[in-house]
Amino acid sequence: xxxxxVRVAAAGEKVKLKAAMNHLAIxxxxxxxxxxxxVDKDGLIAAVGLDKEVEAQxxxxxxxTVVNARKRSVVPGLVDAHTHPVWAGDRVHEFAMKLAGxxxxxxxxxxxxxxxxxxxxxxxTEDDLLKLLLPRLQRMTRAGTTLVECKSGYGLDVQxxxxxxxxxxxxxxxxxxxxxxxxxxxxxxxRDLTAEExxxxxxxxxxxxxxxxxVAGELQVDSIDVFCEQGVFDVDQSRRILEAGHxxxxxxxxxxxxxxxxxxxxxxxSLGAExxxxxxxISEEGIAAMARAGTVGILLPTTAHILRLKPPPARxxxxxxxxxALGTDFNPNAFCLxxxxxMHLACVILKMSLNEALTAATLHAAHALRKAHSHGSIEPGxxxxxxxxxxxxxxxLVYQLGGADQAISHVIKAGRVV
Length: 418
Ligand code: NIG
Ligand code: FE
What we know:
Urease, subunit C, domain 1; TIM Barrel; 2 domains; 6-stranded mixed sheet; 16 strands; globular; binds N-(iminomethyl)-L-glutamic acid; binds fe (iii) ion; imidazolonepropionase activity; Probable imidazolonepropionase; metal ion binding; EC 3.5.2.7
């Protein structure tokens, strides 16, 4: 009996990834009928429509759990396309340094940043890391996330990178969300190596160890990532790492054009990358190359907000035909677990519309992870991942800044309230 169900993709339509970002397929309640979503015993969506239409499709059904969504609205489960959730050693002390004017790279070069977290993550046991990870995933779930991309990258050595990926595997059965996991051994150059040495370490030692874990059925890794940035991995080193990962069957999904314009977007597009993140400094040519390649741009408004960067050109990217997705970028620099907060920032800072923000946080984010066939919209046959907003209009999810817990009445993962 919901007041409003936002399906995101239009009824019966194939997933539309470009111009359709601002278009939502919304079913509104009528004077005498609400909107229903039927879920089958496998947790898949069976039907969506006005109450009587849905009931008529299943005259013999025995309805088990019914969540009453009267005076509420329903949107697809949120998809967080970029996070770094496995680590020990927060960097709350660096927050004050940054507020006082230190840049991200100044903190990094002073021995802080990623390498600080690496020391603590190397020292932590698998159990320590799992204990830190699970409540973070739980907080994401409470804020409506049902599918999340999770990166390694605070090990930078073979053992710790594999340890982080194993922690993600251990989390799967406990987490109420689906995890897409990414190997990011090239997240930073370890203190004792040059970037060239680190590139070889990633390609010749870390990647084969990850591959062995996959072959042995111990790891399920979907993508490869690298921090392509001035003073970290240059475009050529990044390309070699990404190609090596791609040869092992991983999707390409990496950090590009964040602090300096290196034309990494063009490089990624030439490799047919599935996705690139950040893109604050992308050029017009980079946007055109991504649009041609169909590469998803994952925008992370928390980073620009916290580091006081010029935000990524979301409008130019959307208008230029790039499918835009959103992520929290949760990490010790950007401590945000909430996609509704990210959607709010996307609207206010990146000048995206509410409809675009919802598409970017659901269907397009699922497509960035190549899971749009099964996730990201309310369509029969897809997994029943749903967020019930405690208001008749779904926009409350974004409008109530930081109020995700109040605006969401239920999160449903594969048909079950979690
Ligand atoms: O996406 N830019 C590189 N990686 C992260 C930051 C990680 C960290 O600072 O620990 C990002 O913002
Ligand atoms: Fe990141």
